[in-house]
Amino acid sequence: MDHRFIPNLTEEQIADIQLKGLRWTVGHVHANSPFYQERFRDAGLEPGDVKTLDDLRKLPFTTAEDLKDGYPLPLLSVPERDVVRIHGSSGTTGKRKILSYTQKDIDDWKDMFARCYEMAGLTVEDRVQICVGYGLWTAGSGFQLGCERFGAMALPVGPGLLEIQLQMLTDLKSTCICSTASMALLMGEEVQKQGLADKIRLRKAIFGSETHTPKMRRQFEQALGLEDSFDIIGMTELYGPGTGLECEAHDGIHYWADYYITEIIDPETLQPVAPGEVGEMVVTSLRKEASPLIRYRTHDLTRFIPGRCGCGVNLPRLDKIMGRSDDMFIFRGVNIYPGQIGSVLEHFKELSAEYRIFLSRKDGLDHMAVHVERAPGAQASSDADLARALAAEIRKHILVRGEVTILGPGELPRSFSKTKRVEDSRGEE
């Protein structure tokens, strides 16, 4: 299969590219990064110690805290005169994680992103409505860079602005939207509510930035009349979105292994997990000049998918991002990820994919309430039975009790970006 942007590489060729890139990166930061120079001294490492890909495990991890501690320009490994742009993401301590880019970094990013549009089966005739944040965030800039490099028409609307979004869909006849899953769901609901389904020409969606369930995906695909949708991965620390995309076979996400190395580790032991097991994704950049990453702990949970993909692309695959290791909450001694509740909802066709988890503490005892929406068309008369059945299923799968409340369609708050699934007030007692 011929592609304009996606390379046809064998495993051996990928391994050669990765080793060359790893050795370049190690030498680059050893010569130019005060942060990594100190880390290497502490570990007793020299660039010559990296002779094979297995030597990657000798290198120290990098964390989000390292980026915040190095604020405002952490990991900088080139003279400031070579930096042409910065992007940043929010930080929980008030300091943002800011990453620097050289022109080559920008060029590499847009080439990776062009691969995503190609993987999704778009052509230069497509009109791509970009419904994600611009400015300091990487999302809007990345989607637009890749779109222009690929050659399709970019419609840079940004997030929110629902009236304008719908106007672009109907007047400009957008064929692809790029958004979070929550935004796609919200737009789908509005298209149905306003009777616009026969006035739009959407065929595809590229979505990411938050975990989603198959039910949520089916809801926005049906509401928007899509032929297909594609899960995208990426993060500000590693260029931005566009570092991998699900293919039309929908059997995992192909990631660009010629630009970065991925490891899957146990977040507790920091050792590699067994093949196919879920763990935390760790990335090492192979070409980044301004802010290289060595063994950066993403906290994203996923797993490798072995074997060849039916789509014909040889690049390796990850499973969808299943959540974050730091999203886990402990309820009555049980470790729970929000996505586990979403997975239980798959068993109930009468319920939608929307849910919220509320954690509270009364008289020293933790309580969990789960609010979910009834699916459009489902009868309210069955709410009590549904609530009991869902509570029982949650206990069966997660081993804890929760009080379930069934709400009407659209009663939970909607989001233009990532939906907040958990509200924890236990520290407010």
From TrEMBL:
Entry EC number(s): 6.2.1.30
Cross-referenced InterPro entries, in alphabetical order?
AMP-bd_C_sf, AMP-dep_Lig_C, AMP-dep_synth/lig_dom, ANL_N_sf, PA_CoA_ligase
A single GO BP annotation from the record? phenylacetate catabolic process
Identify the metabolic or biological route this protein is part of. Aromatic compound metabolism; phenylacetate degradation
**Domain AMP-dependent ligase C-terminal spans what residues?**
333-426
Q: Which residues form the AMP-dependent synthetase/ligase domain?
A: 72-284
The GO terms this record gives for MF are: nucleotide binding; phenylacetate-CoA ligase activity
UniProt keyword annotations, A-Z:
Ligase, Nucleotide-binding
Membrane-spanning ranges: none
Function statement: Catalyzes the activation of phenylacetic acid (PA) to phenylacetyl-CoA (PA-CoA).
Complex and partners = Monomer.
Q: Which family does it belong to?
A: Belongs to the phenylacetyl-CoA ligase family.
Query: What name goes with this protein?
Result: Phenylacetate-coenzyme A ligase
